Amino acid sequence: MDVRTRPPETVESPLDARLHAPERMPDIEPAGPLGLAGPPEGFELSPLGARRWRNFKANRRGYWSLWIFLVLFVISLFAEFIANDRPIFIHVDGKNYFPVFVTYPDTDFGDVFGTPADYLDPHLQRYLSDHQAFQIWPPIPFSYKTIVSRPPSPFPSKPTWLLTKKDCDFAAKNGYGKCGTLQYNWLGTDDVGRDVLARLIYGFRISVLFGLSLTIISSVIGVVAGAVQGYFGGWTDLLFQRFIEIWTSVPELYLLLIISSVLVPGFFVLLGILLVFSWTRLVGLVRAEFLRGRNFEYILAARALGVSNTVIMFRHLLPNAMVATLTFLPFIMSASVMTLTALDFLGFGLPPGSASLGELLSEGKANVQAPWLGLTGFFAVAIMLSLLIFIGEAVRDAFDPRKTFAE
What we know:
CATH superfamily of the largest domain: MetI-like
Number of helices: 16
Strand order of the largest sheet: 2-1-3
Number of domains: 3
Helix content: 55-70%
Shape: elongated
Largest sheet: 3 strands, antiparallel
Order of helices and strands: HHHHEEHEHHHHHHHHHHH
CATH architecture of the largest domain: Orthogonal Bundle
CATH topology of the largest domain: MetI-like fold
Distance between the termini: 44 Å
Oligomer: single chain
Structural class: mainly alpha
């Protein structure tokens, strides 16, 4: 049927079609974890999300790095069940005890002092043995702050599996722990006498949690600030830009050192201090995406239909900005982890004695005669950052519309 013969009321202009069909949006969907679009219904990925997931998996290095990092992180979350100086479970005299969760007084195990029970104390262990107690211990019987009681040499002592006959003879002659009765230290001890492997597990967990918390909070603030700048523009954008230029010109490291030396160091104190500066990392990127997208035709159509600015910003424009933003998150997280490690290395980070990769590196620098300290800290930081960088490269490939991989 020729268009000229159709009734006038059935002919629509392109603008009318756009205004009456607001559901015609670009093929961009809100991003889910790792930037992959969430399943629209049930457990099925959308075509766009499926393509991104295929691109991510096609980068084998990044795909397996993600799994390795997740496995290491999940293991570290259960550090108390892996490295602890308290048993996981004790059954004695018909009673059940869970020392890993509850602090019991030593009066429950034959003493009279009422202080917290020390389960590595020979007297308490003798009591449990005499009463035929059933115990389940973690694989590593040391916490991150437990001092080894029977070392084979002065601290720092080398890993147990590296001990030679000469080391054993030295220990026997000088009153140190004999090789047959030593508590096993896979990576040796530090200069205070704490098990290095236990501190490595706890230090990895606190580093990842700190980096993840800082990345998420700073990214949320940065995305909101960039969205407001880019969407409204004008004086709002101009004033925000001048403020950010002044703020980012402040010498961040010096100010961090000054504040850390004045305030009592701690996890949340450091998180708050670093958050003051790190929120600006994503502002420029999100601002550019909103400046580019606010004049798209479907945005103009939404405004004409009376859609609120908040809905336009966070439902229609934000998914476009998140595509570019999510590719930077693994790199931002690696930078956050390195910032904490650097502060700990300089002595301005977590409180002394906390499990920290930076403190482990500092101990390695101060004890060059104990290479296991420096090597352990170096490889732990290097492996963690390498995994995060590989994951970031895979996420970037997943969002690159020009990159396709053979099935």
